[in-house]
Amino acid sequence: MRADFDLSREVALVTGGGGILGRQFAHALAEHGARVVLVDRDAEKVQAAAAEVDAHFPGRVMASVSDITSPSSWTQIEEQVDSAMGPATVLVNNAAAKSPNFFEPFETFPLEDWNEVMQVNVTGAMLGCQVIGHAMARRRRGCIVNILSVYGVVAPDQRIYEGSEYEGRAINTPAIYSTSKAALWGLTRYLATYWGDHGVRVNAISPGGVFSGQNETFVQRYSARVPLGRMAERHEMCGALVYLASPAASYVTGQNIAVDGGLSVW
Question: Which one of 3.30.110.30, 1.10.340.30, 3.40.50.720, 3.30.450.30 gives the CATH number of domain 3-257?
Answer without folding.
Answer: 3.40.50.720
